[in-house]
Amino acid sequence: MKCARCSGLLVEDHLLDMQESYVPMWMRGLRCVACGNIEDPLIHYNRMMHEARRIRRRAARVVQPVLRPAVAA
Known about the structure:
By secondary structure, the protein is of the alpha+beta class.
């Protein structure tokens, strides 16, 4: 796989989450060899949801043309 940040090589890595709970939690994730960017399933899900919201907002901004009646002279 390619890194979203630098297009470098992503390798599987075992990550330790010590901040979110009082018990250390191990999880698998992907780490970029070149830039160190980390992606795990939660990060990937949040990025997908952000992109979907951005697409919906962009589609909602498309303004339909308003047809005005012709003025008789």
